[in-house]
Amino acid sequence: MQLRDNGLGFSLITIALHWLVAALLFSMIGLSIAMSLEVSEVQRMDLERLQNLLGTVLFLVSLYRFWARISSYHPLPVGTPNPIEVIVSRSVAVALALAMVLLPIAVWLSRSAAGQVIALPGGFAIPALMDPNAQVQRVVDVLFNIGATAFLAGLALHMFGACKNHFVLKNNALKRMLGKHVEL
Ligand code: HEM
């Protein structure tokens, strides 16, 4: 089994982790929406604990994934895109992988600075990174909002690129990310 990406294709690990990260991220967004609806305090705390757990898994997986992305070859593009498109799409992909490491750290720091416990299911909790500090919390929250906005814009561009390749250019870029073997 191919463990690392090479010039000819993504490894199965990359493909599995790519879709795991996407599933975790969309589940966390879904949980945020559920929490904003009218739910009881007990249900809200259950949802928050679950979201914290998914965020922890997302962070740990993303640490490996970012290292794997920057330390292995990005496979050659499918089709014949112009070099600018290749540079932009690869930079966005790396930035998305980095954001999945930095944004959870910002949330961890912000909650610690606010003196909030990051509770997990089963009565566990994530240790605080620092003592409560309102000033640090304000700065981290501003940075988080800027980072999260840039991340969502990058993700929209990334998904637009995937749809364009699949529906307009009708090439195998998305199918390759779904595990199809593509001859280059
Ligand atoms: C429904 C959502 C998504 C779709 C349709 C999608 C589609 C794709 C496709 C087609 C590729 C292959 C690009 C190529 O051939 O070079 C790719 C790569 C990549 N995508 Fe996504 N993606 C999605 C969500 C995400 C999310 C949520 C992230 C990160 C937060 C992400 C990060 C990456 C990265 C880092 C790569 C490079 C390969 C790797 O290291 O995993 N994608 N994506």
Automatic annotation (TrEMBL):
Location(s) in or outside the cell: Cell membrane
Taxonomic superkingdom: Bacteria
Domain (Cytochrome b561 bacterial/Ni-hydrogenase) ranges: 10-179
Organism: Cupriavidus numazuensis
Keywords of this entry: Cell membrane, Electron transport, Heme, Iron, Membrane, Metal-binding, Transmembrane, Transmembrane helix, Transport
Entry membrane topology: Multi-pass membrane protein
SUPFAM superfamilies for this protein: Transmembrane di-heme cytochromes (SSF81342)
Protein name, as recorded: Cytochrome b561
Transmembrane segments: 12-37, 49-67, 87-106, 142-160
Broad class of where this protein is predominantly found: membrane
Cofactor section: heme b
Similarity comment: family membership: Belongs to the cytochrome b561 family.
Gene symbol of the encoding locus: yceJ_2
Pfam families associated with the record: Ni_hydr_CYTB (PF01292)
